[in-house]
Amino acid sequence: MKLPKNFNIKGNKSCVLVAPLDWGLGHATRCIPVIKELLSLNYTVLIGASKSTEVLLKNEFPQLTFLPIDGYNITYSKTKVGLWIKLITQLPKIARCIKKEKKWLQQIIEQYNIELIISDNRPGLYSKQIKSIYLTHQLTIKANFSFIERQLQKLHYKFINKFTECWVPDYEGENNLAGDLSHPKIEPTIPVKYINPLTRFIRKEMPVIYDAAIVLSGPEPQRTIFENIILAQLKNTTKNIILVRGLPQHKSILNCSQPNVVIYNFLATDELNRVMLQSSLIISRSGYSTIMDLEVLEKKAVLVPTPGQTEQEYLAKLLEKKEHFIFINQHEFNLQKIL
Questions:
Q1: Domain ranges (residues) in the chain
Q2: CB-hemisphere CA count at 13 Å for 91?
Q3: Is 156 helix (H, G, I), strand (E, B) or coil?
Q4: Of 6, 50, 66, 140, which has fewest CB within 10 angstroms of its CB?
Q5: Strands, E, within 123-270: which ranges?
Q6: CB 50 within 8 Å of CB 71
Q7: CA-closest candidate to residue 217, choices 188, 248, 240
Q8: Host H or E run for residue 70
């Protein structure tokens, strides 16, 4: 990852706050290359993290200072139809979180002498005192109706335009990964800079030892629903499978009696990088951070969007059309057919 050419603050050892949203682990994982680049340039990096993201990022950067910040703690419905109703009922909670994180930021800036903020999809983390960068691939928020899409974009831009500039982790031209999400017809009024896809992984040649790696992620209860579908179908396969549950906070182990199936709650970057390279096929959600990882690894993949999450459904369909990956709905998921 390379920072924009005109990126600068006061110089080396200036203090930078990086704070990812807790809406799934993807926001935290794509901040890993950003943090590594800042450290390589001798900046002092502080990480603002809620409990789930702190566990993940502390594993990567145990030497850094972590500042606790409340998560949004968004939950999904069990059904696709109920998703938007569930999200709408959580809007007051989201508004309170934005207000609270803005107040938190003002205290932190003074306490730690912060000179730059990089906020991954946290709309309240901006300040008029210092340079504030908003990191997002969602300049368009997909919805089932164009009218709702336009209103969501206006609301999102209202927050984005309070920042100094916006970084978009995608390619600038037509050969991009996120389509309309990252390349809207109307852009925010602040400078928008395309910084290319962000990934914590590195491609290298490794022997294939697994027929498939299944990498789970995303909000509950859909993560568990998909996991239960997979666990039931794993009983009928003799293929070598590794399942990574995406639960960095869990200590208890999920036992499996099948010698051909290996299960982990969570794997650190280097281990997950190795496992995915050693797998013939990847099965995962179609979150954008996962897609950026798959792109750099050049692996065959089956994308299973979280039901009702329009962004993931859009990305899965778009990238199947571009012949990058295969798209399958969760209710149609059949592990035997896929393998």
A1: 15-194, 212-338
A2: 7
A3: helix
A4: 6
A5: 131-135, 165-168, 192-194, 212-215, 241-244, 261-264
A6: yes
A7: 248
A8: none
Fold of 15-194: Rossmann fold (3.40.50)
The pTM of this model reads 0.89
State the virtual CA torsion across 75, 290, 309, 301 in degrees, nearest 10. -130
Q: What is the CA radius of gyration of the chain?
A: 20
**Single-letter amino acid, residue 113:** N
Give, as one character, the DSSP assignment of residue 307.
T
Q: Do the Cβ atoms of 125 and 102 come closer than 8 Å? A: yes
Mind listing the pLDDT tens digit for each residue in 255-279?
778 899 999 999 999 999 999 999 9
- Give the separation between CA 19 and CA 228, rounded to whole angstroms: 32
Torsion of CA 213, 217, 220, 223, to 10 degrees: -20
**Helices (DSSP H) in 235-309: which residue ranges?**
269-277, 288-297
Nearest Cα neighbor of 122 from 130, 114, 112, 132 is: 132
How many degrees, rounded to 5, is the angle at CA 1 between CA 67 and CA 223?
60
> Which among 306, 31, 312 is positioned nearest to 169, based on CA atoms?
31
pLDDT in tens, 115-155: 999 999 999 999 999 999 999 999 998 887 788 888 989 99
CA distances, 116 to each of 7, 110, 125, 216, 326 (Å): 11, 12, 11, 33, 40
- Class of 212-338 in CATH: alpha beta
